[in-house]
Specification:
two-stranded antiparallel sheet; mainly alpha; Hypothetical protein af1432; binds fe (ii) ion
Length: 331
């Protein structure tokens, strides 16, 4: 696969943000009372306190916000960690809440996964990123098994845009679908695959956003830097006891090709771990169906046709067949 198919990014330093947005779907009035919640008003940079510790959010407030079409509120950047721990403590409640439609629960999880990854990636703390990925991987497998979400639900709920954390969360859900499709049923293995997928582009931390989104041709040095991300990711993670070889190979080998024309090493066929092969397919699928800074996302049928053409060349033919059948059956 070419370097162009996985150009997601971690943004390079940007102006200090005072507030960060959070989806209201993640707010449960019975447990979010410790957060000060702000609403944006007027120009982009103006916020006013909506509800706080001494006047907490109610179910009625949420109803009214939804009726007004408000999907996000804001917290101060200093409260991000408190919000992350609130989410982690309460995510199971959302996922297990059978009164919410499965698609809504999936949307919450997908959003929370993106937010959680963004927060830990941007702090640059690899241990925390691994821990957050393990949590999110477990929740993803839990929800996808419990609610038996079909590929159609997953595909239609997913946001097809260009953002590292959107991409990683999408690759995670798709990996679970494909893993199940090829017959992996053990929850522990599915969780390992989900976590590996969330981490697959962790080596992009530190690569400037401008470079990863550059629409023009890349110089040799620029290409080399981008193509270093599987090696950098592997080097960052390889000494962590909690990660398995298969997960590390998802990080290290997801840009290898079955014909040996991939990177970073150019290994071929069986030399690529099956989970690396699996990650390669869903990685390219998400990259091509999503909007990029330099092109619109392609229609699913075009992308499946591309995968067919790559079947047995760049990508494992058995897994491509399985993925095509999962997606054509349900989408
Ligand atoms: Fe990727
Ligand atoms: Fe990648």
């Amino acid at each position: 696969m070419t370097s162009a198919v996985c150009l997601t990014s971690v943004k390079s330093p940007k102006p200090e943000r005072r507030y960060v947005s959070i989806p209201i779907a993640t707010l449960d009035p019975s447990s979010c009372y410790k957060l000060d919640l702000y609403e944006q008003h007027g120009s982009e940079d103006q916020y006013r306190l909506f509800r706080g510790r001494d006047f907490p959010l109610t179910a009625d407030d949420l109803e009214k916000l939804r009726a007004r079409g408000v999907k996000r509120l804001y917290i101060r950047t200093g409260e991000q960690q408190a919000y992350q721990s609130y989410l982690r403590d309460n995510l199971s409640n959302f996922i297990e809440n059978e009164s919410l439609p499965a698609t809504q629960r999936f949307q919450i999880l997908n959003q929370v996964t993106q937010d959680c990854l963004q927060e830990t990636f941007e702090r640059g703390d690899v241990s925390e990123t691994v821990e957050a990925s393990r949590d999110m991987g477990r929740h993803t497998v839990n929800l996808m098994s419990r609610a038996d979400l079909v590929a159609h639900d997953v595909f239609s709920m997913i946001k097809h845009d260009f953002h590292t954390f959107t991409h990683s969360a999408n690759v995670c859900s798709y990996s679970v679908l494909l893993a199940k499709g090829i017959g992996i049923v053990a929850p522990e293995q599915l969780e390992e695959i989900a976590t590996g997928a969330l981490l697959h582009d962790v080596g992009k931390i530190g690569i400037p956003y401008e470079l990863l989104t550059k629409p023009d041709a890349l110089s040799d040095e620029e290409r080399e830097l981008i193509q270093s991300h599987p090696t950098v990711g592997f080097a960052r993670l390889c000494r962590r006891e909690k990660l398995t070889w298969g997960q590390l190979m998802m990080v290290y080998q997801h840009h290898e090709r079955m014909d040996g024309k991939g990177y970073p090493v150019g290994v071929k066929g069986d030399e690529i771990h099956p989970w690396g092969q699996l990650c390669a397919i869903v990685d390219v699928f998400d990259a091509l169906t999503s909007d990029r800074p330099y092109h619109r996302g392609q229609h699913i049928t075009e992308v499946l046709a591309y995968l067919e053409r790559e079947s047995g060349r760049g990508l494992d033919s058995g897994m491509v067949k399985c993925w095509t059948s999962i997606m054509s059956r349900n989408c």
